[in-house]
Write the structure tokens for this entry.
Amino acid sequence: MATPRLALDHLHKNYGTAAAVADVSLSVSAGEVVCLLGPSGCGKSTTLRIAAGVEHQDRGSVSIDGQTVSDATCHNPPERRSVGLMFQDFALFPHLTVAKNVAFGLRKTDRSSRTRIAMEYLDRVGMSGHAAKFPHELSGGEQQRVALARALAPRPRVMLMDEPFSGLDNRLRDDVRDTALAVLKDEGAAVLLVTHDPEEALRMADRIALMRAGRIVQIGAPYHIYNNPVDRTTAAFFSDLNVIHGEVSSRQTDTPFGLFLTPGLVDGADVEIIVRPQHLKIELDEGDPPKPNIKTGVPAPGTVTRSRFMGPGSLIEVRMDHDNSLLRATLPGVFTPDSGTRVWLSLRRESCFLFPCANQSKVASPFEPQVIKVEKSNSDAEQSSTHVT
């Protein structure tokens, strides 16, 4: 395998008795975008600052192209690491023109080449027509494009980005992110991007490293993490969730939506069956209940408490008969039944997740929750069951 452009190996960083980073290992290859994703205070920015050389880890090492730049015996400053830095506040010099801001990082380049290189990178981010302006004459999105050009102009091997787009409004943010991603990919730099926005991580990352309490709890391609979350908290970070509670009996859990097999849990264990709102199906109650089927299991009755049109689709809240819980479904198009409307709710079983409840001790064997897989059966009773693999 090729040597990673950036490698973080067993990083630890404490502030007093609090562990900001706890045994973080991560690698980023040339041309790859890896997002450090997590809530505020999870340690992602500290990890980035250690990679940049702004912070010094207590233990562990940082390597670039196989060369150690920081460990217990050495610590290269940022300017000796060939890294580019981008932050939320842009950090442009207000007294310099756009062109001179970009050229500022090229002080080691001969003077005759600085303007040419600066204009080349301004052109790549669509800002060459603003070269003579000052930062205060630009919009937020334009300033961020200039900051990107300035960070890229020295051709860093590693680009480190800390919430660089969070100060922009939504519509502008998408445009600037797309421009940045295209330029970064074209440059072939290894990109480590810190963000608290799961949509941004899904949009930009080749891989996502989800952090919690100073640790990486799951890392993988966006599709993998979204569709195979390691726990309920991970699943909830990417979207709203519906939670259906159950109790294991004879290694299976019976619910109003059908039977779920839970081979890794012993009798009496509490479980949570998780389904996203877009994976629920609603049918109006017109007398006879809909027939169960292998894909959606057994329909369960409920009453609409509220519905509203959300633009891309409709959100419907249903109070379930069996336990008075409230489940939320999102459907494409316009579907806004009145409050009090009786409905049948079913779920896409292949899109469900099953997890033991938090602090669950009644586990028969090491339990690694995964997406529930539908297994075809012959009998009607078996047709409403699923297996955890």
In short: The chain has two domains: 6-232, 239-387.
